[in-house]
Write a structure and sequence with these properties.
The relative contact order is 0.32. The chain has strands spanning 2-7, 10-12, 18-26, 33-39, 46-52, 57-59, 67-72, 77-82, 91-97, 102-103, 107-111. Helix content is 0%, strand content 54%.
């Protein structure tokens, strides 16, 4: 089993930045990818970005050039740096391991003036 704990959500004005963190524990040697999904009110949950153990990254088109996913293996932590935030980025953000195998509890990100 893998446990994931997110932090770093909050409220920011349009154009601002936030960094989300996701600390993994448990059977971390089984993790081959970590990622972030988000779910906005009334919408389906969508994949935002992921990073593999080899360092390969992938982003949804809506966040390319604004968000950066990274992973610190020594700290068993993944990060999502979010810049140039837009109101449409408002959602609950979930950290995952091995895509949909393990989920964190979610952290709210609100972009509003």
């Amino acid at each position: 089993q893998v446990q994931l704990v997110e932090s770093g959500g909050g409220t920011v004005q349009p154009g601002g930045s936030l960094r989300l963190s996701c600390a993994a524990s448990g059977n971390i040697n089984s993790i081959y990818a970590m990622g972030w999904y988000r779910q906005a009110p009334g919408k389906e949950r969508e994949l935002v970005a992921y990073i593999t153990s080899g360092g390969t990254t992938n982003y949804d088109d809506s966040v390319k050039g604004r968000f950066t996913i990274s992973r610190d293996h020594a700290k068993n932590t993944a990060y999502l740096q979010m810049n140039s935030l837009k109101p449409e980025d408002t959602a609950v953000y979930y950290c995952t391991a091995n895509f949909k195998s393990y989920w964190g509890q979610g952290t709210q990100v609100t972009v509003s003036s």
